[in-house]
Amino acid sequence: MNIENEMQDEYRTTDLSLAGYLLVAGLPLLRVDPEDERRLSFVFRDDPNRSNLCAGFWNDTASVPPATYFSAMRRLKDLIKEYSRQAYRVPIRRTSGHVRGHEAGID
Predict the structure, then answer these.
(1) What is the pLDDT of residues 68-99, one digit of tens each?
(2) Of 72, 104, 101, 71, which Cα lies nearest the Cα of 85?
(3) DSSP state, residue 36
């Protein structure tokens, strides 16, 4: 399968709440991509039923177990935090053989 076909088989959203719902609904999360300096896009494997799932979400007719949705939201937020740590990691500078806490991400 070429890259164009792979991208057609993907669905992306920057909406965290919708991404959480799609995760609970069973769409596989493939990756998280940067959209710009401040936003990430959640990339799912597309599904023939995805448009119905999104319509149910936006029309407030979707139903998911609250605890499962909460877990999915926590997982996505953890992915955002991890991505932010990796994307904005500053090289550690050593001063006299010691690493300063704020440079190592320890404040």
Answers:
(1) 999 999 999 999 998 888 766 545 444 444 44
(2) 104
(3) S
Q: How many CB atoms lie within 10 A of CB 78?
A: 10
Could you please report the per-residue DSSP string of 64-99?
Answer: --HHHHHHHHHHHHHHHHHHHHHHTPPPPPEETTEE
Q: Report the distance separating Cα 103 and Cα 107, nearest Å.
A: 9
Mean pLDDT over 3-9 rounds to 59
Cα 86 from Cα 103, distance rounded (Å): 14
CB-based contact 14:40 (threshold 8 Å): yes
Retrieve residue 29's tokens. Answer: 């999360």
